[in-house]
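Work Package 4 report. The design task specified in the project plan requires that, given a folded chain encoded as structure tokens, an amino acid be chosen for each position. We show below one input record used in the internal validation round.
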């Protein structure tokens, strides 16, 4: 049985936040983007582009900022 959009998004967040918890921000973001692409309703989530820009500009360079951004997905 397929997950709903909400269930899938929570699963993505949980997996990404495990990386954040271990201090691996690069793989946290990689995991989030990769997992979002696995559901038709999240595969083109607008926050993917925003997050990428924030990473490039250095705004998601702490565990706190990355966690806050990931938790803000809806």
């Amino acid at each position: 049985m397929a997950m709903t959009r909400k269930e899938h998004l929570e699963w993505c967040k949980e997996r990404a936040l495990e990386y954040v918890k271990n201090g691996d921000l690069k793989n946290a973001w990689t995991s989030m983007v990769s997992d979002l692409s696995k559901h038709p309703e999240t595969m083109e989530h607008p926050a993917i582009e925003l997050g990428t820009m924030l990473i490039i500009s250095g705004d998601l360079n702490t565990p706190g900022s990355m966690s806050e951004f990931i938790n803000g997905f809806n």
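The two ends are 22 Å apart (CA to CA). Validation will be extended to a larger panel in the next phase.
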